[in-house]
From TrEMBL:
Regions of compositional bias (Basic and acidic residues) in chain numbering: 280-294
UniProt region (Disordered), positions on chain: 67-87, 280-305
Listed name of the protein: WD40 repeat domain-containing protein
Regions that span the bilayer: 35-54
Keyword terms: Membrane, Transmembrane, Transmembrane helix
Length: 393
C-alpha cells in the first residue's frame, strides 16, 4: 500500500502542490476501517483532484481540528486588583471580565510598536511575549498569537496553561491582528499589505497618519481546520463637503465580531462606529438589538438586558434599555464592560480629574455611589503607558 501511494505521489509531484501530510491524513482517518490498497489509491487521486480543481488558493486545510483546553465551569466572578504596579503584575478582574492581556506602545522613528503581555494562569500574573499580537479566548485558557515582528504570516493557538502552541496556521497574506469569535470556535485575522501603525511628521508640531494598508481578512475555523481569505479594502477618509457617510482616517482598521458571531464589523471614525458585513464580506445592516460599549467589541447591554452603557465623558451615564431614562451617573471617564448587572468596569480618573490622561481601571456601581480601584492610575501620555484587553472569564 505504501509503495503504491509513493509511486502515485511521485507522478503528481511536478504537476500539483500536494499537502505534505495528505497521505498520512487519509491513512489516519481510515485506520478504523479496513480498505484495499487500490481503493485507497483511488480515494487519494480523488482527494488531490478536488484539491487542485475545486478549492480556492486561499483555503488551507490542516490535518486535524483543534481541541482547546476546557473553560472553567462555573466561571470565577471574584474581584482581583493590582493597584501597586503599572503595568500590572497580578491578575485584574471583576465579575464576568478580566484583563487577559495588555500592550505597551513605543516609538521607533515612524513606527508605533506594541509589546504584548499575556495572562499566565500558572502564576496568576502576566508574562511578556515576543509575538506581534495576542488575544485570549473566552475563559482565559487559550490564546491566539501572530508570529512575527510587527506583522506575521503565521497565526498560532496557544495553551495558556502550558505556553505551548497547539497549532500553527500559515497564511499567504500578512496579518496585523487576530481576535476570537464569541463562542471561541473561530479566529478573525485582519490582513495588511504593510504595517498600519505609522506616524509621519507633517510639520514641526503635527503628525500625519498614512492611508490604511488593510487589504482583507482571514476567518480560521478551528473545528474544521479551514482558513479562508476575503478581500476588504480599508475604509477611506472623505473630503470636506462630500455627502456624510462612514469614514476612517486611521491606519490600523482591525475587524471585529458581532456579539452573536454571525457577522463581522469594521471600525469607523464616525457614528455609528461600526459597519457590518457577512462572514464573506457582504455589507449588512447592524444586527437588531445589539448594543456595544463605545468603540469596543464588548456588549453595552447589562447581562439581564435592563441597562445600557453610555458614551465617554465625565460624568458618564447608564440608561434603561426599554425607556432611555437615565438609571445612574458615574464620576468616571469611560464605561468599558459589565462586571455584573449592578457594576461596570470603567476608566476612572485620579484625584479630582484635573488631568484626563491620569487614570486607571475601576469598578463602579450603576448609581455611582461605590467605586473600587482595580488598577493603578497612570499617565497615558508618558512612555510605558499600557492598554488593557478585557475578556470574558
Amino acid at each position: 500500500m505504501t509503495r503504491l501511494l509513493r509511486e502515485a505521489f511521485d507522478e503528481w509531484a511536478d504537476e500539483v502542490r500536494v499537502p505534505h501530510d495528505l497521505a498520512d491524513r487519509a491513512l489516519r482517518r481510515r485506520a478504523w476501517k479496513p480498505v484495499g490498497a487500490a481503493v485507497l489509491v483511488m480515494a487519494m487521486i480523488a482527494a488531490v483532484a478536488v484539491f487542485v480543481g475545486g478549492q480556492p488558493e486561499s483555503v488551507v486545510r490542516p490535518a486535524d481540528a483543534l481541541t482547546l483546553p476546557a473553560r472553567p465551569s462555573p466561571a470565577p466572578t471574584d474581584v482581583r486588583t493590582d493597584t501597586e504596579h503599572s503595568p500590572p503584575t497580578k491578575l485584574i478582574a471583576a465579575g464576568g471580565y478580566a484583563v487577559s492581556a495588555y500592550y505597551v506602545t513605543s516609538r521607533e522613528q515612524e513606527r508605533v510598536r506594541r509589546t504584548w503581555s499575556l495572562y499566565d494562569p500558572r502564576t496568576e500574573g502576566y508574562e511578556q511575549t515576543s509575538y506581534a499580537w495576542v488575544d485570549a479566548a473566552p475563559g482565559l485558557q487559550a490564546a491566539a498569537v501572530i508570529d512575527g515582528d510587527l506583522l506575521g504570516n503565521r497565526v498560532g493557538v496557544m495553551d495558556m496553561n502550558t505556553r505551548q502552541i497547539l497549532k500553527w496556521f500559515d497564511l499567504e497574506h500578512s496579518v496585523g491582528s487576530v481576535v476570537w469569535s464569541p463562542d471561541g470556535t473561530k479566529l478573525l485575522a485582519t490582513a495588511y499589505s504593510s504595517y498600519p501603525d505609522l506616524r509621519r511628521a507633517d510639520g514641526p508640531s503635527t503628525q500625519r497618519v498614512p492611508e490604511s494598508p488593510r487589504i482583507g481578512y482571514y476567518i480560521i475555523d478551528l473545528q474544521t481546520g479551514e482558513s479562508s481569505f476575503h478581500d476588504l479594502p480599508a475604509m477611506k477618509d472623505i473630503e470636506p463637503g462630500e455627502d456624510p457617510r462612514p469614514f476612517n482616517v486611521n491606519g490600523r482598521q482591525d475587524l471585529g465580531w458581532s456579539l452573536d458571531g454571525t457577522m463581522i464589523w469594521e471600525p469607523t471614525a464616525t457614528q455609528p462606529d461600526k459597519v457590518f458585513h457577512t462572514l464573506d464580506g457582504q455589507p449588512r445592516e447592524a444586527p437588531e438589538g445589539e448594543r456595544y460599549a463605545e468603540h469596543s467589541p464588548i456588549s453595552g447591554t447589562s447581562p439581564d438586558g435592563r441597562l445600557v452603557l453610555g458614551g465617554s465623558g465625565l460624568p458618564t451615564k447608564i440608561t434603561e434599555a426599554a425607556t432611555g431614562r437615565v438609571a445612574g451617573q458615574q464620576r468616571v471617564l469611560q464605561l468599558h464592560a459589565w462586571a455584573d448587572d449592578d457594576n461596570v468596569i470603567a476608566l476612572g480618573c485620579a484625584g479630582k480629574c484635573e488631568n484626563e490622561f491620569n487614570a486607571g481601571l475601576v469598578l463602579v456601581s450603576v448609581d455611582g455611589s461605590r467605586t473600587t480601584q482595580l488598577a493603578a492610575n497612570f499617565d497615558s501620555n508618558k512612555d510605558g503607558a499600557w492598554r488593557w484587553v478585557l475578556t470574558p472569564r
